[in-house]
Each structure stands twice: as C-alpha cells, then as structure tokens.
Predict the 3D structure of the following.
Amino acid sequence: MMAQWFALIQYVCLLSLTNWISWSEVTAGRIREKIYHDFTGPAYCIKRLNGSHETGCSSGMSGNVGVLHAVEDFVDVNFVCKSGPHAPYVAVIDALDLSLYNTAVLRQLDDSQRVAGVILIKRENGTVPTAFSPEGTSPNRGYGLYSDPAIWNPVGSALLHQKWAFPIFLLHKKEEISYLFDNCLHRFNNRTASGGGAPWPLCSAQLKNFMFAAKDSKSCIRRSEMMTNLNPQGRCDPLSDFNVWSILNSLSKNLTSSAPANSTIVIAARLDSNAIFYQLANGAESTVSGLVTLLLLAEALAQVREELANKQILFLLLNGESYDYIGSSRLVYDMTTSSFPRPILHTVLAQNALINLDSIDMFIELSQVALLRDNAFYLHHHKTAARNDSDPSRQREGAFAAIAAEEGRRYQMDVTTSTASQQLPPSSLQSFLKAKPNMAGVVVADHSTTYHNQYYNSLFDTLESHNSSFGADSASQYSSAFSRNVQKVATVIVRSLYRLVTGKSSDIEASLQSSNDLMYCYAHKSNCSLFQTYFTDLKAQEHFLSDGPMNTYISVNRGSVPQEAAYLSWKTLAKLTGNVVGQMSEDECAKKNLEQDELVNYIFVNGNATENGTQLGDCIESNTGISQAKSPAFLLNDYSGKYSTWTESQWSSATFRIFLQPDPQEDVKILVFGIINTVVLTLLMYGLSHRATDIFLIPNNPVS
C-alpha cells in the first residue's frame, strides 16, 4: 500500500513539473515584456582598427547597465561624473547641442569611470548646429601626397577617430524618444529640488554592442585566421566592397592587349561617406553631389559617344575613400599588375584592353560640388617644381582649365583655377599621382581653400541641413537646390570635355530631370521609383532600399554582390550609358552574360509588361562592371603604412533596452531572506528524514 502511495506522489510531482515547465515557457516572454522595453530603431557606434590602434565604441560582453540621466548642462555633467549617488550612469545627451555633444565632454564622461554608456537624442524638428564634423581637419592624413597636409576641414573634431570605453547609441525616431522621456526619465529619474539623486526605483538602461576586435588590424586579422571548431568566432574583417566602372568607346583586346598611352580620359568620384554611427552615413555634399554629377556626365556623354571616338572614357566610382583611399589605392594596384578592368583571358572572345597608368591622358575628379555658397567652382591641380608650364601634363591641365572657364562664362558660372602655392584637397587623384607624379589631373570642387561643407562626414550632412530638401515624396514634381546646382556643374564639365576631345563647341546639356531623380534617390529616399525598377524580388528590394537617404558607408563585404551604394550605382551607371537590346524576361537577359564576351554585359530593368505570367522588362547592354575595393595591404600582408589597413570589428548583436531598477538594498534583503529560508528548510528536511520512523507508521509487512 505504501509503495502505491509513493508511486502516486511521484506521478503527481512529475505531472506538476511538466505543466510548470510548459507554463514557464509560455509566460517567460510575457514576464520579460513586463520588465523590459526594447528599442528597435537606434543607430550605434562600432569599433574599427587600423595598423596602429583602434577607434570607436564597445560595451562589455554582457552589455553595460546604468541609471539613465538626462545631461542638459554642465551641472548634470558634474553630477554624472562626480556627485551622483547612483553610479554607474547612462548619460542622455541632445545630439544637436554641441556644447555637450563634443569630444571634450565625452572624454570627461569616459575618464570619470562612472558612465556605462551614452544615448544621443536627435529630434526631427530640432535646430541643426551651424557646423559639426567628426572627421579630422586633414582627412586621410598620412596617405596622400603631402607629409604636412593643409587644413581643409577646420571644423573637424576627430571625434570619429577616438576610442571610447562605453557604447554610444543614437535615438532618432520620434516615438522612441517620446517613450524614453515620458515613461522613463520624467517619470522616475528627475533630480530632487536640492539637486540630489531621485529616490529608488530608477529607470535604467542596458546597452549591448560588444565588439570582438582589439588592439590593431594586424593582430586582429591574425587572431581571426586562427579560428577553429572550438573557437569559431572571428575578430574583424578588412573594410571592403566594390568599385564601379564604365567605359565609353572601349578598346578591345583583339585590337591591343593594353590601351595605348594617353588614350583614356578618367572621370572619377568617391562612392562612400562616413559617420560615427553604423549604417547612418548620408554624405549629401561629401559624397552624393560628386556622385550624381558623374552620373549626369555619363548620361550626357553617352549620347555623343560617336563624336568622342578618338578617346576612351573611363568612369570610376571609388569606394572606401573615407578610409585612407581604399578604392583608389586598390585600383592603382590593379592597373600596375595588369588586372584592370579584368585580367586578360585567352578563352574569352572579346574583352576590354587592359588600362594602366600610362593609358590615362587626364584624370578629372568630381569632389564636393553642391555650390553651397556661390555660383562658382574651382579646379585644383598638383604643383611641384618638376611640373612647370612646359610639362605636357601641366599643359593638358591648363588647356582644360581655360576651356572650362570659357564654358562657365557661357553658362553664367565662375570657374577658377586654384592658386600656384596650394595643395590638392583630399582626393582619389592623390593615389594616382603617388604612383605616377606626372599624370595630368584636376579636382573639381565648390571650395577654393577650406571646405564650404560644414558637416563633412557627419550625420548632419543631409539635404535638410543644407536647406535643400525636396519637401514631398515625388521626385518628378519637386526639385532641390542640390539637384539644380550639380546639373549646372555637370553641364559646364561635359561641354568642356567635349570641346577638349573634339576641338568644337557644343550646347549639350546635362538633364535637370535626371539630376532631380538621382538626387532624390541617393540623398532623400532610396526606395524610389528609379531604384525599384532594378528588382523583381521584393525581399531583395527591401534589403537594398529604404525610406531614408542611401547609406554610403563601405562596411565589410564577404561576398560577390556589392552592397547598397555600389550595387545601385552599378545598375544606374549601366542604365545611363547602355542601350536597350529588347524586352525579355530576367532569365533571358541573364543568359546573355554567359556568352564568351566580356566587352559588354547585360542588366535587367523591370517593366510592367507580362507574357504568359512571365514579367518582361528592358535588357540593357553596356560596358559597365565592378572591381574589388579592398586594400592591397591585405593581399600583400603589408602593414607598413603604404596602404590603408582599416578593419571593422565583428559583433553578435546590438540591443538597447530600459527597465525599472529597485533599490540595491532591497536586493540585499531578498538575498539574505533567501539564504535564511534555504538554511531553515534544509535543517527541517534533515530533521524529518532522521525522524521519519517516529512520525510515519510503517507496517512490518506492507501489502503490495
């Protein structure tokens, strides 16, 4: 009988345990939701490394936890760093208040060792500061032509290149900012009238973005290469993506293995920008103004390509230029190793002739050209004692400058050549001149000396900050000042190039409609009608396009498909310079790329027509492609400083959540009570087990 009772008790206990486990799995998520509030839209700072040190932010492995405190003045800074009784703190700072959001204050918070993290608030309707750039005063210092480069970015704070011991997150969604203040800071964490800390419970935050990288790129890459099954986590990866190129009037390898000397005019622009926060690099003036100008030039010159037949024209969009000229240094390396546009393959029937440095007749780079202050732009060229007025390359630059000045006057614009004592601004051209000092080249920019752009490589480098927003979601009906200005610059340059090559004047004009559409897609809303035509797969469209400006940060690419900026620019450049060969399905268009011909390639642009349920669109033939934008340093294992060595740390996730934290003394009380309770129950069970025969009557011969 007793055995049956024990079996029944065991069954009831097992059933109760099973039900409890099932119930806990269902309710655990609900309990967690009641304790924590997760923010899904914050941007965050990450860690990057180069050959000598690391920059950026990281939390601890389990995240950093601290009491939230709104830092609104220097009294709050002192409270958080010194007198506040509830350290560690998570400081909440207005990103638009540069008296608090600056390198000095962040360094003070860091040095206090009482701050677990920083949350920056960027309100949509806030007043943007008149100037802010987290970049240095001489961008890419040490990797250009000059050992002592001039100051081009005087408002630069170098905040981007600092190392911080805590994570930094940015909230920019209106509803999340309101929740943080209304349900957390104002409700629980207001200081007392005497200036002391608010009473418990207090609203706290956990910030987690632990970065696996440490020390410098060389050490980090070595550790990543030591991955095993027991240690599968990498540490960092080289910053890398793709450059984009397109050729008008291309020379085939069947005519010549390498393009002849001085046969090619290069028109280049940078493809990337930068900012402190991952995936939040807009670069409206820093990058997009020059990028859109190049695309307008490509479209206009493609219409008169037959008249320019005596020159091969190479368009280049160079990636990673914000990080010590990654894209341009790789392209120069490829040219010097007979690898650009592609290594010669004897099995391919038609292929582009190799382009090397001697093939380049002139290099024209389109830099920041949004004309922020006046109706003028400047031509910068490299001056050395060896390049006097009798030098052929110098004469070529002078001829182009004279033509551009005259064409500018025809179009009511002022085009001026930089002074003889002036250095080149930071530019991709410097990478080419380091390899070939006597190359003819100019940098086109809207500034003579220091940048007119007061937001260089910052999250404020947007159309709105430059008072040039579209104001509505229809690119065909609205125009921004940026799109009008770059169209004017493109028109002057395209007329100057046409005259330089043909010796004749022309009234060719860059398209204002195209300028408007492109500026809208790159700098206002990448989920635009133009870019949507490149996709038939909705998931791919959602991956590449967004309702905000295009992100132009290079990041890390481990695959063969370019990331957002390079991919969309590749398709756009092909569309603007190519020819429609017919309407067909996407698969039929893709099959054309399998032919033994690399002189042209094909892209599919989605159309609305259908045939038997198969979506038809335009198949465009062009001579456009991509090439690696990964520093030669990682091919050659060269960390000497000759090439860029920037890497990006790996991380598993980035989360930001808030919760209500009780008085730590209450935690101690609960712990003590739990210990006492455990001891008492243990003693009770011990006593019961030793007195069981006295308490329970057990028969000598139990009936089974």
Residues 40-233+653-662 form one domain. Residues 184 and 203 are 6 Å apart (CA to CA). Residues 5-14, 24-28 have pLDDT under 50 and may be disordered.
